[in-house]
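Sorry to interrupt, but I need a hand with the structure work. Could you add the entry underneath, on a fresh line?
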Amino acid sequence: MRARRFDRGYAAAAAALALVAASGQSHAQSADGFYRGKQIRLIVGSDAGGGYDASSRLIAAHMGKHIPGTPTFIVQNMPGAGSLTALNYVVNVAPKDGTAIASIHGDTVNAPLFHPEQAKFDSRRLNWLGAPVTSTYVVSVWHTAPVQSFDQVFDTELIVAAAGGNSITLPLLTNALLGTRFKIVRGYKSAAAGLLAIERGEVQGNAGNAWSFWKLTAPTQLREHKLRVIASYGLKPNPELQGVPLIIDYAKTAAQKEALSLILSDQEYGWPYLMAPDVPADRVKIMRDAFDATMKDESFIEEARKRRLDISPTRGLDQVRLIEQVYGTRQEVIEQVKRIVSE
């Protein structure tokens, strides 16, 4: 009698285990097969025609082949509020089934820290897929400028062109935190207009343009050493800028370094791609893997090269780690940075 009871108990346990295994296999199959016949919407937080849009359309053309089921992509532009409109839509309105992706500006990631009334999301809860481009912003001077090294900016005024965004924020930050002497001339309509002003002698340099912009628009001036990069705002060295000092290394206190890291983190976020919270974890993994595979796809890289699109990717999991670190910034440091950049 006891043996028969054991046999029946063993059989029941085995059946239960088999059911669990079958359920797991079915779940895995459903995750792999979910995207078959689906269309994925890539919501771009900028107008058509710019770099963000061009990069998004190239990714949309290649990423589907790296996803089980080979879904199609459709790109939809949703500009507004520095890409907050697109992000708020994907987080709060779009389906949470893994068929909607947002492509946003890097500075939007930290928006809840500075503008919680506008940013209706928590970046720590978002599902980050990665970025095709990470940015390095630099300080550049014309060869006739009175300043030819970053060390000199602490003693000698440098007149710099500003067209908004980081070309204002970054020199304001270093002036307030580190004591640099950038004189910011605002009102230029574009970074290209600022470059023309440098060449004409109206100003002496720029203290917040992307290195990728200079490579694209001023290759001759760089090659002939008429335009010189004297410092980098990156959180880590850019391999293309050997010997160029990092501004964050000039921080003398932990509070200064914390404030600089907060505002410079968007360079490492790059041009982020993400999915909303509550998207099933297995679908997030599929999309992260597909994004990483796309960044290594030789046909994608070759087409980006032909279109003169810079590719310097970062992984979604690396973005997650950085966001956790940045969101641990002390509130008094956040308030200090807000005061500085609002000047």
User: Anything to note?
Assistant: The chain has three domains: 1-33, 37-134+271-341, 137-265. The chain has a mean pLDDT of 90. The longest strand covers residues 39-44. The two ends are 86 Å apart (CA to CA).
